[in-house]
TrEMBL record:
Its EC number is 2.6.1.42. Its cofactor is pyridoxal 5'-phosphate. This is Branched-chain-amino-acid aminotransferase. Coiled coil: none annotated. The lineage of its organism: Bacteria, Bacillati, Actinomycetota, Actinomycetes, Propionibacteriales.
Amino acid sequence: MQITTTLTSSPTDDARLAEILENPGFGTHFTDHMFTVEWTPTDGWHDARITPYGPLTLDPAAAVLHYAQEIFEGMKAYRHDDGSVWMFRPEANAERMVRSCDRLALPELPADDFVQAVAALVEVDQRFVPSNSGAGEKSLYLRPFMFASEKFLGVRPAEHVTFMVIASPAGAYFKGGAKPVSLWLTEEYTRAGRGGMGAAKTGGNYASSLVAQREAYAHGCDQVVFLDGQEGKYVEELGGMNMYFVFDDGSIVTPETGTILEGITRSSIIELAGKMGHHVTERKFAIDEWRDGVASGRITEVFACGTAAVVTPVGALRTKDGDVPAPASTDLTMRIREALVDVQFGRADDTFGWMKRVV
């Protein structure tokens, strides 16, 4: 793509930026610029530009507001100790967005253009990438997204589409850091079904999870667990993360995809755990197997993973039929977490070829 760049006339001053980077939170502060490119059937992708961050102007009839034709990605950029800035597996995010485009009847953005767009914004706003010392885990969270911006009312794929990238300095996703999170099992609501949109990263999937997430909060839990929509007995995913179960023989099971989102962190852990000598199986995993496995001691650890939270131990599971206590250990969970984070922040050799240098 040919990208034009218009820099802001009022950049965040150094003192304010230092405050933000000291305690960025998650998803509350944004960088000075944003990337935009548009698509129509006649012109294809065109007018790629980086401009000052600011509000959008949308017609009230914009298709996304009525038919929810939109998708997004989540990824991060990391500053290494030498000051360089790197992205983690951007090609994997680009490929997943192509799959989401196909499911939501949106035009495909070529993977190379996706990576170029994200890298261009990171380069322009590189001062917003936090530095880290010791075991610090601050990063720049990147949010590429695509939506139907055509002005019309009617149920058909839009013929004007906008792709954008925004960025936000990020600290820990959970306020307590990498501590065990408590989960609520919802048996009333499901997240996805066969032939649905569960494997696409689209806002509708997250919207459908919110009522169950509210239910989890009401029961004093951090996150919600969804079961499959067909039989209501197989664990699928959390509100925003994939799951792993560690057994006493060192083997690991993660629920199979198809109706759920295939996470980039999830696939990375499959490779990483395999290299560490652990056999990882992707298969259906029943809620009763979770209950019985913890009770018998066969399941020694449970953890969740995602771009935002990275790897997080799972504590107790609360259900309407009683609680499943936290497994006995978090040892392997934390070793996997450390190994992954060390690659991302340049503290360990990237033997997988996952990191892409931007600056």
